[in-house]
Amino acid sequence: MTSTPRAVTLARELDTKDDEDPNLILIIEAGCDTTEATAMALEHNKDRYIPPEADSDEESEPESRETTPSPKPEIKRTHQLRLTFNKPPKNKGRGFSFGTEGNRCDVLLNTKRGGGQISKVHFYITFDEKGRLLLIDESTCGTAVSYGGWGQELTRHHFKWILLSQNQIRIHLPMNFTLDVVQPKHFFCKKEYQANITSFLNDARDAVLALGGLYVQSSRTSKFPTGSHSPGQQAIYLPRKHLGEGGYGTVCLVTHLSTAKFYAAKELIRGSGLSKEAKLMRDISHKHIVQFVDFTHDPTTQLIMEYLPLGSLHDQHKIDPITLTETRKLLLQGLDALRYLHSLSSPITHRDIKPANILVQGRGANFHIKLSDFGLSKDTPFLKTGCGTLGYTPPEVYRVAKERKMEKDQRKLSTLIYDNKVDVWALGVVVLQYTDDLPYDALALYEQIADAVKDLRRRRPDDPFTVLLDKMLRKSPLTRPSSEDCFQEALKIGYPSDEDTSGSVTPTRHDFEASNEMLASFKVPTQILAGDDRVLGSKRDPSPTRSSGHQNKRPRINHPYYHTVMGMLSDLRLHGALIDNGGNDEYTATSIELICDEFSRQKITHIKVDSVGSHGVTIKAYRANKSGEFVLGHFTSSKPTNSMDLAYELKIQNSEKGSNRASGLSEAASEYSAHYEHRLLNNSYGRLSSGTIKPPPRI
């Protein structure tokens, strides 16, 4: 019987404990009888090298016929290099170095300098400031990193990749030299592993202070990539999942491999209009227009844009119907975007405004939309071609298209045009659709649209919102107001704000600052944003009142936790885990104060909202008098909560144990019930029969 080599025994022990070893950073593997395996086995790498397991010569005792033979453990047939915290790199500021110069490299890949076109220092592996593993190329001939087999042909120079742990990662060097990367999960030692990363980063900073700068790698860039790259440095976007498709192309979710940020990538099925759309979008900058990110041809031609996980207005309406409050915000925000586009030095007409092309960034009190899909847009003031979507296209487009088809006189053809008021009409139809439940099959019938507007005016004769909508849907573009006129009228409907409501007189593509921050904020109620049909106040009385004449309650903005709570609520809305309180600002204000008081009671220093899986959200907090983080609560976008229920849950979940906890539960229940009964008596929250308010849970 031969003894098992010590190295093999060590390999087997480590193999069963990889995911539980906080000292282990990652494993680099190569198959047997390969150039890569020969490189790993070099004397220079002996402190990190683990050879393949050998077949055991031990004879097992014969088993009885009645006994089922136990399956033999799988023998690992790969050569391994293990990067660990207790064997740090030579240059802590740069990370673990790989190449062909022994004096500078932690891992030697060839004994000859520049052998196999591998540079003296070809790449580094280190952590970024968020504790994510990075691979940074420093070579002459370049490196590629593939994720689940995707991306091996995308060679880059002086580039960085985040090694996403959920993917099977392979490093591709010149001459078909490849290395597989295995990242331990660290399920049961995450706290210790994170502590090791923190120590590693601190050592890295200390190691380079004398050099006058930090080598600790940062994955931060500007808000969005610039779209301009040096040769071999163009951004790489890893496809994640299919988001949708239309007649012109598909849209998928992608990850920027140098930042791990998510974006939406549009790829055309046919035609060459993507470059035109990219050219239009490149210089557009407005908070209610989807942001251009990049335009890439490698590996395919794609238009990269910011990603809004809630999807389109059409998608959201199917999940949770758009409320009247949100519809009025939709009108004001849409007009804000259109007047910006129409006021540029080279005016842009969208020409395809519809629910599917309006993306949603937030719902409820933080309702926020962004126009998208500029595939049919034109940067000219006068238009002649017929396009758009049936039902949202105004009468003049069809009239011009029909007359141009019949007209033979070239001089008269030049007069058969329409302008950007087509966008005003289309937005009006979208708003009418959600205001009056206009059936989709009626959208193309102008008489039915006119009838719907007349019916709305008859039911709400004094509603300025309805009056404005009526103007936007005038059949004649000569009497239909411009987007700027509509926007200004919409502003006059609302209450005055402390915030600046005046935009640039001559807006430019680069520096236009969209006015009226109130559009996405519940704290400045305006009549056009209000959730009911009556005028709640007047311009001379900026404070909305209840029917009793008492001023509505607003959250205490000077509360030390106000901005922390508002930031948390905003994050929850973006994750789809928080919904509106039925359009009632007082109810929202009360819940915000409850949460502020709870945070104050717990002496919380800051809050973090993290995604868990595809629908879950976890609220994590940090206390001033305790180290480390703790979980405040778990929520989900499949069953979103409102701010009052959230306040109650946080108060209940985080009450002290024992008698203090019981007291906290009782106090929370009493406080919650009191606010519920107050809403019931004043009837200012809405119809209880609709199920909008839930009674306080039993304790």
TrEMBL record:
Entries under SUPFAM superfamilies matching the protein: Protein kinase-like (PK-like), SMAD/FHA domain
PROSITE patterns: FHA_DOMAIN (PS50006), PROTEIN_KINASE_ATP (PS00107), PROTEIN_KINASE_DOM (PS50011), PROTEIN_KINASE_ST (PS00108)
Gene Ontology molecular function terms on file: ATP binding; protein serine/threonine kinase activity
Domain of life the protein comes from: Eukaryota
Positions of the FHA domain: 96-146
Region (Disordered): 1-21, 43-78, 533-557
Name recorded for this polypeptide: non-specific serine/threonine protein kinase
Listed Basic and acidic residues bias regions: 533-543
Top-rank EC class of the record's enzyme: transferase
